Amino acid sequence: MKQRAKGNLPEDFRKYFWDCEFDELIMEKYPKFIAERILCFGNIKEIKWLLTKLNKDMFLKISTTSRRLDERTKNFWKIYFQNE
After folding, report:
1. Burial zone of 61 (CB within 10 Å; 0-12 exposed, 13-18 middle, 19+ buried)
2. pLDDT 10s digits, 29-40
3. Contacts of 23 (CB under 8 A, 6+ apart)
4. CA 72 to CA 35: how far, in whole Å?
């Protein structure tokens, strides 16, 4: 993944944030918003990137309690972390 010079999200993520100012998105400032988009629309490589940026507890909290994620996605991550 090609890292951006401005901001801190890889350029590949731009397609998921078409409705906002991509250059203004900073993981430390908007972790929940960014994580929700990646969990909804991202691929395995992008989710692995996300796991390197969030600690396990924060990732689990977002992935299982977010109102923006569908129940299937939330259930997947709940089961995934129970079996880890």
Report:
1. middle
2. 999 999 999 999
3. 4, 6, 7
4. 16
